[in-house]
Write a structure and sequence with these properties.
The protein is mainly beta. Helix content is about 5%, strand content about 40%.
Amino acid sequence: MASLPITWVENVFDAARAGTHGAGKWDDEFEMLDYVCPCGCNTVRSLPIKAGDKESGRWKWDGNRDAPTFTPSIQHVPNKQNKCSWHGFMTKGEWVSV
């Protein structure tokens, strides 16, 4: 399994344009983690999160903002705009591909 540390940035769209895959930014207003896909396709995605017990449609987050862990796994399904099919985990601040 390959892993990549998350790179915290101020703007994920700038990071995507610069080719910084795996970059992330907390979106506290919407309780999301906005990130650049760790596969290298440079697509910006959002992960709806919830600290503590998992809500329907949200990933459980361990509460660590510096080295977060989310469960369950994260899977990107290809669509018309993007052929990416990355699947993996965010564990202790590392993107881990499966």
